[in-house]
Amino acid sequence: MDDLDSVRVLTRLQTIEAIGVGGRTWDRLEAAGDVPPKTRLSTGRVGYRRSDIKAWLNKRRERGAA
Q: Which of 29, 35, 36, 66 could disulfide-link to 52, CB 3.0 to 4.6 Å?
């Protein structure tokens, strides 16, 4: 398991800003099931782990991209 000090959970808005897409684009990706897994923090609060976001971005990387 990751060291708890290195685990950071971003909100939906923070995640969208970090990856540089718009809210509508994120909504479309989410509707298609193409977003990182959510982490439930409490009954009404979910977020995205930085490590999951990085893994998701790496999977989407195109060949030949630097």
A: 36
